Amino acid sequence: MAVTVQARSAGFDEWLQSINAACGRFRATTLGPAFSGAMQAYHTHALRLSIVDAAQTRLYRTRREVAQSNGGYFFTVFQLRGSALMEQGERQACLSAGDMTLIDAGRPSNFLFQHDSQQISLLLPRHYLEEPARRGKVPCAVRLDAGSSLVRFNHQLVRGYIDSPMLGAEESEAMLNALASLLRPLLVGGEATGEEGERGFNQALRFIDRHIQSERLRPEWVAEEIGMSLRTLYRLFARHGLVVAQYIKQRRLELCAQALRHAPAWQKLSHLSDDWGFRDHSHFSTAFKTHFGISPSEYRKRYQ
After folding, report:
1. Among 17, 37, 51, 167, which one is most buried in terms of CB atoms within 10 A?
2. What mean pLDDT is predicted for residues 221-236?
3. Considering the domain 246-303, what is its CATH architecture?
4. Where does the HTH araC/xylS-type domain start and stop, copy by copy (predicted)?
């Protein structure tokens, strides 16, 4: 039997308490005097979801709130009305009506509701997605576009449950499995095109620049952190005549050359190349000469 908890037109404190009761620990702040919030929660066997109305508020979880909650699931978010900004790690998804995204309940997150927003948040146990995918982390805070037929099917499935919430235990499990089956192609096989693809390409460039000195910087890490498949990342770069690994190498060489022009004479080349991700100095020297036509030491002398 469905249990429905309502907090219509609630005050701020009551609204936050309803969120915490249904979704785990969150913190919140108002963004202005025009805050409004409402909450409806449904719980039927394995199915747990909420309809959340919010305006002029920020809802967020730090590591402290995560530690106080059950992190064994994803918030599967369906935007019904208005807009919302959902952030997690390096990623952010700006949702409009009809869009979807996933948020990992086991990691800090941040949600902004500037204007009148209504969304469904369904708690999807992580094993429904993580075990069958087996391709690394599930990409979260990635906008799943309302124009996708799979996204529309997910919306219809969830709305159907809200209209008729009297499901048995096996039916509840079957619905979660159906949701996960519809989500998997979106998460591991989706390929951005057009304007969305260009945004993904620019996001990858920004991520590479932010982490250019990290030893972890590889195409696989870039794709995972910005929420796209490795195949999609390769294709986005190929459209611009680039290869991801080569671009990272060339970008490091360019920034290293920039640092060389301003480095003091006493600074060792090996230390400088190490700072920019080149752990093998002989490999760095060869790569530098191939790219610029002269050795790093000659390059430095020229600019000094």
Report:
1. 37
2. 85
3. Orthogonal Bundle (1.10)
4. 202-302
* Beta-bridge mates of residue 124: 74
CA distance 183 to 186: 5
Query: Are 150 and 182 spatial neighbours (Cβ–Cβ below 8 Å)?
Result: yes
Q: Please tell us whether the domain made up of 3-188 is placed in CATH 2.60.120.280.
A: yes
278, with CB counted inside 10 A (0-12, 13-18, 19+), is buried
Q: What token pair was written down for 180?
A: 């996960």
Which is it for the CA torsion 14, 19, 24, 27, positive or negative? negative
Query: Percentage of the chain surpassing pLDDT 90?
Result: 31
Instruction: Using a pLDDT cut of 70, give the percent of the chain over it.
Output: 89
Pairing mode of beta strands 73-81, 117-125: antiparallel
Question: Could you identify the residue written with the tokens 């394995």?
Answer: 46
- Cβ–Cβ under 8 Å, residues 192 and 204: no
Tokens 């908890």 correspond to 5
What secondary structure letter does DSSP report for 144?
B
Instruction: Order across the sheet with 109-113: list the strands.
Output: 27-30, 57-61, 109-113, 84-88, 91-95
Taking residue 129's Cβ as centre, other Cβ atoms within 10 Å add up to 21
* Best CA proximity match to 85, nearest among 62, 69, 109, 53: 109
Report DSSP letters for 201-231, one per residue: HHHHHHHHHHTTT-TT--HHHHHHHHT--HH
Q: Return d(Cα 167, Cα 267) in angstroms, integer.
A: 70
Q: How many helices (H) and strands (E) does the chain have?
A: 12, 11
pLDDT at residue 195, rounded to an integer: 61
- What is the DSSP track for 227-243? T--HHHHHHHHHHTT--
